[in-house]
Design brief:
With about 325 residues, the protein is mainly α. The protein has 15 helices and four strands. The relative contact order is 0.11.
């Protein structure tokens, strides 16, 4: 593209320094650009997000600050503002604190186990031939596609003390997995990992396949073991991908509801296997204390946002781009 040169002053002599002027089309495009133009393209997505996310979260937060029970829902009593009264009552409740601790520990165990199994199988996929790889992928995707209610029901049958094959194979007799608190949590953990590890496996496997083979071959030629190659080469390269699957697993496992509700019959004997999601359901719908249920939901939202932001901040400090 040529640039038109004009003399700075009319009738300037040979020694006059010429100046460059931008083409007319370019000047027009710059003048026609508006700072809100990108937002026009984002407007449809923002409308959908606002309707499906922002407004429900706003309503959840609003109800958590109100006195909102069945009496207010039916119109028998007026709705009153309680401020932080629901949160004060919530954290003063010993059962809520116990359920909160159990949820954190259970979610942490699920996340660690899911990531371990998923990453191990992803590495295995890179070591086996095409046919076993295809069989493993199909089996994993079948577990991933199984609805949570169906998967929980199947696992309950497998570990049934009377008819389940697991107790017969292990010689446990009529041992009830859902009677004890820790055995019930362990049973639910196995089912959660079973339906969650395929996401980690497929994602990490795709990331491993994207690593140049020359890097892995060079590490192997230097005498590094498979564990050393994973720890020093593969894992640092996959750090952004591992961050995504970790955050996703934390969100999924922290708000587990269906598996606990189905496999422990609503939270176990005397509520010994309650997690926050099931506890919020009991408060909101079984006890008709909708404001307390909303307050539990807000607490869960704040915890997940905090964990996610802290994790992303640590990654940014390490120079990772997500």
């Amino acid at each position: 593209m040529t640039t038109r040169l004009t003399e700075k002053h009319a009738g300037a002599g040979p020694g006059t320094r010429p100046t460059r002027t931008a083409p007319a089309a370019r000047r027009t495009s710059i003048r026609g650009h508006h700072p809100w133009t990108p937002w026009l393209y984002l407007l449809p997505a923002l409308v959908v997000i606002g309707g499906l996310l922002v407004y429900p979260v706003y309503q959840l937060g609003l109800i958590s600050f109100l006195e909102y029970t069945q009496a207010q829902v039916s119109g028998g009593e007026p709705t009153s503002f309680k401020g932080f009264g629901n949160y004060t009552a919530l954290f003063a409740d010993a059962q809520f604190r116990q359920v909160l601790l159990a949820t954190v520990l259970f979610a942490a165990a699920c996340v660690v186990t899911t990531l371990t199994v998923g990453c191990a199988l992803a590495v295995l996929l890179t070591r086996v031939r095409a046919l076993p790889r295809l069989a493993l992928m199909l089996a994993a995707l079948g577990a991933w596609a199984t609805p949570a209610v169906t998967g929980s029901t199947v696992w309950i049958f497998l570990f049934d003390p009377d008819f389940g094959p697991v107790n017969k194979l292990l010689g446990l007799g009529d041992f009830s997995w859902t009677y004890g608190r820790y055995s019930a949590f362990a049973l639910v953990l196995l089912e959660v990992v079973w339906c969650s590890f395929p996401f980690v496996m497929v994602t990490v496997y795709a990331g491993i396949r994207a690593i140049p083979s020359e890097i892995l071959e060079a590490a192997a030629l230097d005498g590094a073991s498979q564990w050393r190659i994973w720890r020093s080469v593969t894992a640092p390269t996959l750090r952004p991908i591992l961050a995504v699957v970790t955050i996703q697993s934390v969100i999924w496992d922290f708000k587990v509801f269906t598996q606990i509700y189905v496999m422990t019959n609503g939270g176990g004997i005397a509520g010994q296997n309650l997690v926050l999601n099931v506890y919020a359901y009991q408060k909101a719908f079984a006890s008709s204390e909708y404001s307390l249920g909303a307050a539990i939901g807000v607490v869960m939202l704040l915890i997940l946002l905090t964990v996610t932001m802290v994790h992303l901040r640590l990654l940014r400090r390490q120079g990772e781009e997500l």
